[in-house]
Write a structure and sequence with these properties.
single chain; alpha+beta; Rossmann fold; 2 domains; binds adenosine-5'-triphosphate; transport; ATP hydrolysis activity
Length: about 400
């Protein structure tokens, strides 16, 4: 191991046997042919890195990706299935702040016990106890059994004890996630003051703390090392990855798109030709003016011409429909040439919509074809599917 290297983690893997049913474990033990009834689960998969003196390494990753398992292996609480860890000097691990505390003993007795285990002599003890007492701010409860403490008090005491043992390697697992703001600040400044003299491994979900303290970052994903290097780059990598996953999840969670039921598409070319219809834009914002321009020619004399414009959302719900009875059409040579537009305001929720251009004469369909889809994109949402143009009149 290099002179400056304090922790060397080499090809660490930790596997667990996963059984579908508890009985499978018994079956496996009793099977004369050593038949396997379990699946192998990799909590950690071939992890290697080195930590140098004075360096702080942040380990980040989402829940269940192996961070705590790695810390436990480095601090000797767990043995790896494969690989090995070499460490130089004294390790103090705060895996669970309160795990080192004995509930029946008082705060003072707990401090004393831990300091003795850490090898402090009688002369040093008094001063150290005072230091921890001051840090933990337990007040008169320091002479009461720890089982009577609040969780915040236990955390303060646990942290105080752990850092006072003058470790060479300090391992911190989410310590800053507990306790109130003041306590967190106190821990942070204590950690900061110790940084230069010791090596630290630091698990946190707070990217700010990681950015503040860590030189390097190890990103774990499903037990694998997916990034190791400079803290800023590591955080960027992690955040980008999280964003991508969120997007994937959103895609999965979006309801299955059902093809809207439009009825049969239809075009009677004997009676209607040169039909054009299009929305002014493909994307609208809330309240924006929407225009559908249309034109067509009729090869006959209509009795009661109606243009319809039904609209569906992406799930096939028929949101609304515009209808126009109109007669004012001008005979142009042998044809009726019609040109017009429908204007409305966009009061639809953000979504993708389909609409149809329908021409009917009395009860006879002449034309039923889809327009190009339009999308409504805005941050604000309306209540329900759509908001209708309206005015309130309220008299007090
Ligand atoms: N004793 C065990 N038996 C089986 N699986 C285990 C055992 N201990 C941990 N695991 C699994 O190993 C994986 C890694 O767990 P670990 O606690 O290291 O994750 P983590 O990244 O620290 O998560 P968190 O951020 O939630 O603390 C998880 O999927 C967990 O369910």
């Amino acid at each position: 191991m290099n002179k400056l290297t304090i922790v060397k983690v080499k090809n660490i893997s930790k596997t667990y046997k996963l059984y579908n049913k508890p009985i499978d474990r018994v079956k496996e033990t009793l099977n004369p042919f050593k038949k396997k009834y379990h699946k192998e689960f990799y909590a950690l998969n071939d992890i290697s890195f080195e930590l140098k003196r004075g360096e702080t390494l942040g380990i980040i990753g989402r829940n269940g990706n192996g961070k705590s398992t790695l810390l436990k292996i480095i601090s000797g609480v767990l043995t790896p299935t494969k690989g090995h860890v070499n460490t130089k000097g004294k390790i103090s691990a705060i895996l669970e702040l309160t795990s080192s505390l004995k509930p029946e003993l008082t705060g003072l007795e707990n401090i004393e016990l831990n300091l003795k285990i850490s090898g402090f002599n009688k002369n040093e003890l008094k001063e150290k106890i005072k230091e921890i007492e001051e840090f933990a701010e337990i007040g008169e409860f320091i002479t009461q059994p720890v089982k009577t403490y609040s969780s915040g008090m236990k955390s303060r005491l646990g942290f105080g004890i752990a850092i006072s043992s003058k470790p060479d390697i300090l391992i911190l697992d989410e310590v800053l996630a507990v306790g109130d703001f003041n306590f967190q600040q106190k821990c942070l400044s204590k950690i900061n003051a110790m940084r230069e003299n010791i090596s630290m491994i630091f698990v946190s979900h707070s990217m700010n703390s990681v950015r503040l303290f860590c030189d390097n970052v190890l990103v774990l994903e499903k037990g694998k090392k997916v990034f190791y290097g400079n803290a800023d780059d590591g955080i960027k990598y992690y955040i980008e990855q999280e964003e991508n996953e969120k997007q994937e999840l959103n895609k999965k969670n979006t309801p299955k798109v059902v093809k809207p039921f439009y009825g049969d598409l239809f075009h009677n070319k004997e009676k209607i030709i040169n039909v054009k219809h299009s929305w002014s834009k493909v994307m609208y914002k809330l309240q924006e003016e929407m225009i559908l321009d249309f034109s067509f020619e009729l090869k006959f004399d209509p009795k009661n011409l109606i243009i319809g414009l039904p609209i569906w959302d992406n799930l096939g719900n028929n949101i609304t429909s515009f209808n126009s009875d109109f007669y004012k059409i001008r005979l142009f040579k042998d044809r009726y040439k019609i040109k017009g537009s429908l204007k409305t305001n966009c009061y639809f929720n953000p979504n993708e919509y389909s609409s149809m251009f329908v021409v009917v004469d009395g009860s006879e369909f002449l034309y039923r074809q889809l327009n190009k889809n339009f999308t409504v994109a805005n941050r604000e949402r309306v209540f329900g599917y759509v908001t209708l143009n309206h005015e309130w009149e309220i008299n007090g």
